[in-house]
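Onboarding guide, step 5: your first structure request.
Type a short instruction followed by the sequence, for example:

Predict the 3D structure of this protein.
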Amino acid sequence: METGEALLIYSELQLSESFWLILGFTAQLLFSARFLVQWIASERAGMSVVPMVFWWLSIIGGILLLGYAIRRRDPVFIVGQAAGVCVYARNLVLIWKSKTRQYTPSESSQAASGQV
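The system replies with structure tokens like these:
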């Protein structure tokens, strides 16, 4: 292997490692931002609330952190993030289901006509 080839390979590895570090820090920033969002929403409401954006930041940050953990081959980090992503996804599904139940046209028309 020539020196030029070795430098090119080393340069590509450094670029790849830099990408993963940037991804990891970005993911951590998104994941941490959810607490700020929740705190501000709670202060505005005067009680503890969990806004929808909290769950979206949780799942997006969690998935990105899971990818980072897989890249780093860290089993503790992988298990922790995978479990969290499942919880965040389930909460989004529950919220979506409750909203679709509240706004189904058939229920609204039945309620209006007194059939419920």
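Each response can be followed by summary notes, for example: Residues 35 and 70 are 24 Å apart (CA to CA).
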